[in-house]
Amino acid sequence: MDEEIWELRLYVAGQTVKSVTALANLKRYCEEHLKGRYQLEVIDLLQHPQLAEGDQILAIPTLVRKVPSPIRKIIGDLSNQERVLVGLDIRPIDPK
């Protein structure tokens, strides 16, 4: 069975505490639950403000799951792991 590569995009605005925390939390969850099966793109809206419109970003930080569809968004520093995993529809990997 081919595992789908998850495409995640994290929108931040500079190196704020919330943005740094969100990125650290997201990387940890991805390594725990999607190891080797994800692509993470971080977009700093201070450098690329025009990119906010494409994903309709209204708050920072925002995580967007592009693939698998449907697109899902989570706003905040991603510190609540259960909420993030449920929000992204990540199921724990079955231990073999």
From TrEMBL:
Domain KaiB: 9-90
Full protein name: Circadian clock protein KaiB
Record organism: Hymenobacter crusticola
SMART domains reported in the protein's UniProt record: KaiB
Lineage per the UniProt record: Bacteria, Pseudomonadati, Bacteroidota, Cytophagia, Cytophagales
Entry-linked InterPro entries: KaiB-like, KaiB_domain, Thioredoxin-like_sf
Alphabetized Gene3D superfamilies for the sequence: Glutaredoxin
Record-linked PANTHER family: CIRCADIAN CLOCK PROTEIN KAIB2, KAIB-LIKE PROTEIN 1
Biological process annotations from GO: rhythmic process
